[in-house]
Amino acid sequence: NFLSDNSGQHDATPSGRLSRSAPFVISEALSRALIERQLRVIYQPQVQGHDECLAGFEALLRWHHPVQGEIAPSAFIPVAESTGLISSLGQWVIEEVCRQIRRWRSQGYQVPLVAINVSVLQLNQSLLTQVARVLADYHLEGACLEFEITESRLMQNFDECVHVLSGLRQQGIRISLDDFGTGYSSLDKLALLPLDRLKLDKCFVEALTGASHGYHMIEAVVRMAHALHLAVVAEGVETPRQQQLLGELSCDILQGYLFGAGGDANTVISYLSRDPDD
Ligand code: C2E
Ligand code: CA
Ligand code: CA
Ligand code: CA
């Protein structure tokens, strides 16, 4: 019986006929979201491992759809990547973050560093000119930005990626290898990448207190990273115990719900005025 179908897919019209509501198609809704200002950026704090002083923020994209509500980046970023929309989406995030840093500065707040997630698909020659233009437009130096690049796709187009990452670093932007340990990057190529930081995936931090060899894995990664003159960022730090162990292991930067889940521009200002000894 169609009329008793309460799946939400079918609505009875006043005349009794059935009209099928249009299915929600992420790719279509996403291009509209860009135009209709449904996207925003939140900022999650990163602290120094040794003293808990604020080290910077990671910019995380949020999408509030008027009907569907909050849609997770894990649902729409892959769609943006497969449809090619990631270029304009990524460009919007960079521009939005720079606009916000300029706004904070005009209010008298100096934000140490903002890390932006950048898809490997964005790493092309035009990114270099776009970034240079945005930095100039907002009178910012590249040193206020870091780009986080996910390991998994980097190796597919290695030479071009190295070229673009080097160009970004020449503009003063720091480069962080995100989700380190979850992909399959070969260690010989790792040493050839122009990097400043390794970002340990949160599954390592979870394994830290587990029965597995998490502690020794992180110990080995930190030693390797430091030998390559890379700083290590641990994400997904949720407990004081994890913080303590990561401190023992000389992890340079910590990020996770223990220090804050992140928030809007005003939340950032409250982090800036916070004393870690309080
Ligand atoms: P990611 O870069 O690995 O970001 C970390 C994710 O872990 C974020 O999820 C963050 O909210 C979450 N997280 C932070 N602290 C904790 C914690 O203590 N415990 C746990 N369980 N989770 C924590 P989110 O915001 O849902 O983002 C998911 C992924 O989407 C990101 O993973 C990133 O790969 C991608 N993403 C987010 N924003 C952007 C963007 O602007 N551009 C691109 N290309 N990708 C983005
Ligand atoms: Ca990230
Ligand atoms: Ca990550
Ligand atoms: Ca991740």
UniProtKB/TrEMBL annotation:
Domain EAL: 23-276
Superkingdom field: Bacteria
Keyword set, alphabetical order: Membrane, Transmembrane, Transmembrane helix
One example GO MF annotation: cyclic-guanylate-specific phosphodiesterase activity
Protein name per the record: EAL domain, c-di-GMP-specific phosphodiesterase class I (Or its enzymatically inactive variant)
Protein species of origin: Kushneria avicenniae
Shown segment, full-protein numbering: 216 to 493 of 508
